[in-house]
Amino acid sequence: MQILAEGILSDSAIQALFDAGKLGAGRPLDADQIQPASLDLRLGARAYRVRASFLPGPSARVEDKLQRLSMHEIDLSAGAVLETGCVYIVPLLESLDLPPEISASANPKSSTGRLDIFTRVMTDHGQEFDKIAPGYTGPLWLEVSPRTFPIVARTGSRLSQIRFRQGHAVLGEDELSALHGAETLVASETPNVSGGGIALSIDLMGQGGDALIGYRGKHHTAVVDVDKRAAQDVFDFWEPLYNRGSADLILDPDEFYILVSRESVHVPPLYAAEMTPFDPLVGEFRVHYAGFFDPGFGHSDAGGAGSRAVLEVRSHEVPFILEHGQIVGRLIYEKMLERPAALYGSGLGSNYQAQGLKLSKHFRA
Residue 353 and residue 37: Cα distance in Å, rounded? Predict the structure, then answer.
């Protein structure tokens, strides 16, 4: 029996899946759609407003459930407004015919998370969001729910991304500790490696002369066009937050915050990483919708020295106090099957290499 190598597929391997007909698309790929270890997914021609989120379950297709749950169909070809607090299901332009040894997982893109747009990928007969079983053949659907700002989206807008893997690629704690010792994955004198990941903590001391610690999303704003860069003024959508001497922050329930990690993050070229939600037993808050870190993020040879992890934070149910240095998330590292042809930040137009506290690309200072 042949033993297959285990790891995340690189950009060249993703292109090979397209070339072999194992990935399909409703129109030609965008030039920058394939990332070092992931593929951006594009919205299709229409969106369906539904009463509530759902999973198709093992006996149904997504389309079958839509026939019962859809309230309204929206044409996305020229762009349309998706309202806050509403749930939309959108067929994606990409489809899959995966080999039996290849599985996949999905996550919102970084810019999607920083706009507080909740997205999850569904498959026919799926019993989990954002998880694609080995050998899956069929269409992909995206659940989209803007939480803070109404958005304009259109056919071809890219809100989510997918990562393909062969076998089990996650590093164990011993492997992770050894890699950190060799490559310095997070800039910490006392790295916390447990639960299969390496901990990140929050920076609430602040940056710059005014000690800016983050931003809180405003309500009742204008729309954000997800395809337009630097089109909106920061202060029309965000309230800046500052360290007033206490280096802590009270999270108000259901408010949305952009904060930053205390540590800089490094993803070496032969690895990929993912931020996982923090254990709810230590606090009623969620950190980081957009979880993928491509190979080369924070890598000095790719211009990323000093890159921080920007954190999208939301408290639930009760107010919660965050304090400077508090652990808020963990990075899980996975092996690549091969080094990508291009690293994150290396001529790819990457938006968040060498970042500190940074809003999404849609806002201008």
Answer: 15
Nearest to 213, CA basis, from 308, 107, 105: 308
Nearby residues of 49 by Cβ (< 8 Å), 6 or more positions away = 70, 71, 72, 73, 74, 86, 87, 88
Q: Are residues 132 and 194 in the same domain?
A: no
Number of domains the chain contains:
2
**Amino acid making up residue 204:** L
Q: Which residues contact 111 (CB under 8 A, 6 or more apart)?
A: 226, 290, 351, 360, 361, 362
pLDDT digit string, tens, across residues 133-144 = 999 999 999 999
Indicate the burial class of 80 (C-beta count within 10 angstroms; 0-12, 13-18, 19 or more).
middle
Annotate 67-85 with DSSP letters as a single string.
HHHEEEEEE-TT-EEE-TT
Amino acid, res. 263: E
Q: Rounded distance, CA 359 to CA 310, Å? A: 8
pTM, to two decimals? 0.92
pLDDT tens column, 39-58: 999 999 999 999 999 999 99
Look at strands 117-123 and 70-75 and give their pairing: unpaired
How many Cβ atoms from other residues are within 10 Å of residue 77's Cβ? 11
Alpha helices in the chain (DSSP H): 11-19, 62-69, 110-114, 173-183
Domain that holds residue 342: 173-364
